[in-house]
Design a protein that fits this description.
Oligomer: single chain
Number of domains: 4
Structural class: alpha+beta
Helix content: 40-55%
Shape: flat
Radius of gyration: 32 Å
Strand content: 5-15%
Strand order of the largest sheet: 3-2-5-6
Pfam family, one: Sigma54_CBD
Protein name: RNA polymerase factor sigma-54
Family: Belongs to the sigma-54 factor family.
Mean pLDDT: 83
Keywords: DNA-binding, DNA-directed RNA polymerase, Nucleotidyltransferase, Sigma factor, Transcription, Transcription regulation, Transferase
InterPro entries: RNA_pol_sigma_54 (IPR000394), RNA_pol_sigma_54_core-bd (IPR007046), RNA_pol_sigma_54_DNA-bd (IPR007634), RpoN_core-bd_sf (IPR038709)
Length: about 425
Amino acid sequence: MAYQQGLGQQQKQVQKLVMTQQLQQSIQILQYNAEGLQQFLQQKSLENPLLAVRHSSRDQANFSGSQQRVDNFMNAIPDTTQSLFDYLLDQVHLTMRDTPLRDLVLFLLEYVDLNGYLRISDAEITAKTGAEPVQILDAVTLLQQLDPPGVGARHLQDCLLLQIENDNSAPNLAYIVLEEEFANFAERKWAVIAAKYQVALTEIQRIFDYVQTLSPRPGAAFSQTQNNFIRPELVVHQRGEELELNLTHESQPQVIFQQHYFERMLKTNDREVTEYMKEKKQEFDWLQKSVMQRGSTILRVGQEIIHRQHDFFFDTKRPLKPLLLRDVAAKLAVHESTVSRTVNGKYLQTDFGVFELKHFFTNAVGEEKEDSADSVKQRLQTLIDQENKAKPLSDQKLVTLLGESGITISRRTVAKYRESLEIAASSKRKRFD
């Protein structure tokens, strides 16, 4: 068969989305929160001599007075930025003499994790230091006598026992119960424990309530993570029966054009300088437009949210109605991804707290799709709060009670919502007092 090659024309229609650099940056600007936007604009001002960024005069006027009040307040707050390691190290130097045993304690400090647990075995200590078992026992004991109580423990049981041993107000049987019956205690096999020590179940319940006050992570108070302050994009005030929504100054910074510098550079009659200035002028115009559009989009989305969730701002129970991103997108005639970028990482300040915009979006549940997941969780919490603690409601019973309220959901959904509320199963909620 002879091979033949032919040439021909074929027309094909292909749809592509070509994103220009400006379009990509416009999307990026919408994604920024207030702090991220400020940093972005500051960087742009360094790259563009025609661009200047400043906050409103109102912000500047409030800064000096408020800053002084903040400084005075902060001076009265003790410094809590010391790490757990430094805190333990100071105690060792202040309470122990310079001996080989102290050197061994200092070695152990290197293996205390951020939660306060000692993460090295006796065998590893011997291999690394050559210390004898008796020396290791003495060093670990000294470490465990340091503050905070529970530090230097090898596991949770050890940690709780150290805290009980350090607390004179602990119930009489607390130490021995956790030492000898820790597994039964954790698994709530309290009848076995009560029979063994010949006490009432109410006494075991009292020990359980006390153990709940102890810390499973004694070193967590010395966490090195820094507080991140939220800068709301929107603020809403109640004016009688109406809600007034405005952008905050942080979300709408002033982008200023350096007109005098621009005109002066154009007079140089240098073609390269002129082209450069025109390019930077176009960049400024686009940037200013993008910032204004960002603020407008956030405001429009915020207005739709408070319209849909009106009851949230007036009812002290803060109920939420079912609301999806696509609902707001359809109302505003924008893409769903635009709404997603708008609400992500953005916050709304109210007279009763600050909420992320994503908080107001919740799926509908139940057969009628009229209840939000948030409202169902509130109802679930109420039922459990009102239950007989001696006979807690099972998940199936909760399904029945919710059904009587017109909320039809499955037992699996009840279990999922209960766990999200950090509520234990009925067998773990039973009390004996």
